[in-house]
Design brief:
Layout: E1 4-13, E2 16-26, E3 31-35, H1 42-49, E4 57-62, E5 65-66, H2 72-78, E6 79-82, H3 94-99, H4 114-126, H5 142-155, E7 160-164, H6 172-189, E8 192-196, H7 200-206, E9 209-214, E10 217-222, H8 224-227, H9 230-237, E11 241-245, E12 252-256, H10 272-278
Helix pairs in contact: 4-5, 5-6
Length: 279
């Protein structure tokens, strides 16, 4: 049984249909990444998985049960969600934010438990935030702040994590830092992770399963080397490209066509004087 699945799912904003009669099964214990052009429905689909958007038709299944028939706390005990650009209460410290992740496990009149403390400590350790736990979240760098939000979702201790563009607005180093963290989490604890990414090359590097969203449904899905092809890029993104191979990981690399400064290979130059003029 899949941890997360959609059956005959249709999603709309007003009179505009975004997803139409979609069937999708998310592989258990794997990293699945949604890709596609702007406005194709990637984030909308993720929002429906998180029960933040009610389907027009169809259903979302979590561990074989319709999430529409589950309580908010029941869903939150099994699935954690990190939306794009989450809103932060003013002057909250890292520790206070991470402790919020234990909310689904709290009961009326129940004191903060040893298990709550254990999960918060573990989340801080996994995200390397122990030394920053007393800092205000809004005083942190972009990468540190994103790690704090991820720590909050980890403190929920769920089997499924949903993340909408977790690397948005981060520089290259912080993007890799966040994705490495999620990769380690999947490898070490077999968490099922579903996220939206815009960077196709990073998606290919980190995903076990890629889902290309297009034309109100799924264009193709599977291993990155099966999905990321010149035809898929042409169909989904409307552009021409070349597909190469990542020299470090052997995963596909998309090189888009377009204009740019051409570097003339050094061997085409003759003489040191000509090299000095160019370089």
């Amino acid at each position: 049984m899949e941890k997360l699945a959609a059956q005959s799912l249709s999603l709309s904003y007003g009179a505009t249909t975004i997803i139409d009669h979609l069937d999708l099964h998310i592989p258990q214990g794997k990293i699945s990444i949604l890709i596609g052009s702007n406005g194709c429905g990637k984030s909308t689909l993720l929002r429906s998985f998180a029960r933040l958007l009610k389907p027009e038709q169809g259903t979302i299944l979590l561990n074989g049960r319709s999430i529409s028939q589950m309580s908010t706390k029941e869903v939150a005990k099994q699935m954690a969600v990190l939306p794009q650009g989450p809103v932060l209460p003013e002057a909250l410290t890292v520790l206070q934010l991470v402790r919020l992740g234990r909310y689904p496990h709290q009961r009326l009149f129940q004191q903060w438990s040893e298990e709550d403390e254990c999960q918060v400590t573990k989340a801080l350790r996994m995200t390397h935030l122990e030394s920053l736990q007393e800092r205000a979240v809004d005083s942190l760098s972009g990468g540190q702040r994103q790690r704090a939000w991820i720590a909050m979702t980890l403190a929920q201790n769920t089997e499924v994590l949903l993340l909408d563009e977790p690397t948005t607005y981060l520089d290259m180093a912080h993007q890799v830092e966040i994705l490495d963290l999620l990769f380690d989490l999947n490898q070490e604890e077999q968490r099922t992770i579903v996220m939206v990414l815009h960077d196709l090359n990073l998606a290919c590097r980190y995903a076990h399963h890629i889902i290309a969203v297009h034309d109100k449904g799924v264009h193709s899905q599977g291993l990155p080397e099966e999905v990321v092809t010149k035809k898929m890029i042409r169909d989904v993104f409307g552009m021409e490209c070349e597909i190469g191979t990542d020299l470090l990981f052997g995963t596909p690399v998309c090189i888009p066509h377009g204009k740019g400064r051409k570097i003339i290979p050094r061997q085409e130059f003759k003489g040191k004087q000509e090299l000095r003029k160019v370089y």
